[in-house]
């Protein structure tokens, strides 16, 4: 009977796996169509400088709007786009579109833009040239572009990924900035921070102290990351900031910038233009 139950479980597992694979294959097909039908959008979330609470930058975040359907969040398709390689054309599009839009904001207000780059994109031999071409065509100064990568891009099971390092080093020599996204959620050793071509740490939102409680453990972790960054001359950006208490703490600890629902959700281009304009002209 135990054997029987085991087999049944196995069949169930097989079915689930097949179901998942089918769903992923369908998503790949729909993503291919989405590219030709122009169904992607970029939303922008403000990055606020903590000393004066002005918007100094935005993060570009992709959205998928299939005709007549609900908007699909990135967590539902980025993984599949990575596995299938479609992240390469999709990621190029995000980079081109967000740099084009940000060039206008940058001319008027000095705003910078952060763009997420997936490991798959950094394995392309032409990635570095693509970025330089996008900057030339958009007119965005290199200093106004931040590429966000995760820890795993540069260090994979203890090994440094040479292709990614060489792209990022070349781009940094042109003035482009690099940020480690979701910092603290990876498993790589800290030693890599000293040697890798990076400029900023984005403190993952899981480190933000829970609202309404002292949450001393979280405070200690945030302080430790900020001090570590300061010692290595890296800038700090706190992600997922949702409360005024978190803002007070981050400012006390010397964090440079904050991003989160407390200031604004990611918004469409037109709304972002208004937020940036208002922030630039506000009297404080
Ligand atoms: P991420 O790069 O860490 O982006 C931050 C995510 O946190 C965004 O989710 C944002 O909406 C969300 N967030 C911001 N502030 C708060 C807050 O105060 N509270 C909470 N609960 N969440 C907050 P989103 O837009 O759904 O993106 C999810 C992830 O998808 C991104 O995480 C990034 O890893 C990936 N992604 C988004 N756009 C792109 C893209 O163009 N290319 C690639 N490769 N990945 C992308
Ligand atoms: Mg990011
Ligand atoms: Mg992040
Ligand atoms: Mg995060």
What can you see in these coordinates?
- This protein has 284 residues and is α/β, with parallel strands linked by helices.
- The protein contains 11 helices and 10 strands.
- It has an 8-stranded mixed β-barrel with strand order 1-2-3-4-7-8-9-10, surrounded by 4 helices.
- The protein is globular.
- The site of ligand C2E has 24 residues, from strand 2, helix 3 and strand 7.
- Keywords: Membrane, Transmembrane, Transmembrane helix.
Largest sheet, described in full?
8 strands, mixed, barrel
Number of strands: 10
Structural class computed from helices and strand pairing: alpha/beta
Distance between the termini: 74 Å
In what order do the strands lie side by side in the largest sheet?
A: 1-2-3-4-7-8-9-10
Strand content: 15-25%
What are the main properties of this structure?
alpha/beta, 10 strands, binds ligand C2E, single chain, 284 residues, two-stranded antiparallel ribbon, eight-stranded mixed beta barrel, binds magnesium ion, globular
């Amino acid at each position: 009977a135990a054997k029987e139950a085991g087999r049944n479980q196995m069949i169930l597992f097989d079915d689930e796996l097949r179901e998942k694979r089918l769903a992923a294959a369908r998503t790949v097909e729909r993503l291919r169509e989405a590219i030709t039908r122009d169904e992607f959008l970029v939303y922008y979330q403000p990055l606020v400088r903590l000393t004066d609470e002005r918007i100094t930058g935005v993060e570009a975040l992709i959205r998928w709007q299939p005709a007549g359907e609900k908007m699909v969040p990135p967590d539902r398709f980025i993984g599949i786009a990575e596995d299938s390689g479609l992240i390469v054309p999709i990621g190029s599009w995000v980079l081109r579109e967000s740099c084009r839009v940000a060039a206008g904001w940058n001319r008027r207000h000095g705003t910078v833009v952060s763009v997420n780059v997936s490991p798959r994109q950094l394995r392309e031999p032409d990635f570095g040239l693509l970025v330089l071409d996008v900057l030339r065509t958009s007119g965005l100064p290199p200093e106004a572009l931040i590429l966000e990568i995760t820890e795993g891009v540069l260090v994979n099971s203890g090994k440094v990924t040479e292709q990614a390092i060489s792209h990022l080093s070349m781009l940094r020599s042109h003035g482009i900035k690099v940020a480690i996204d979701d910092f603290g959620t990876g498993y790589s050793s800290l030693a890599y921070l000293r040697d890798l071509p990076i400029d900023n740490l984005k403190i993952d939102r899981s480190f933000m102290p829970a609202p309404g409680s002292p949450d001393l453990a979280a405070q200690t972790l945030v302080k430790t990351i900020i001090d570590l960054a300061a010692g290595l001359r890296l800038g700090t950006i706190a992600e997922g900031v949702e409360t005024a208490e978190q803002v007070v703490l981050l400012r006390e600890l010397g964090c440079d910038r904050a991003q989160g629902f407390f200031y604004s959700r990611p918004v469409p281009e037109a709304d972002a233009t208004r937020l940036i304009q208002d922030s630039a002209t506000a009297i404080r």
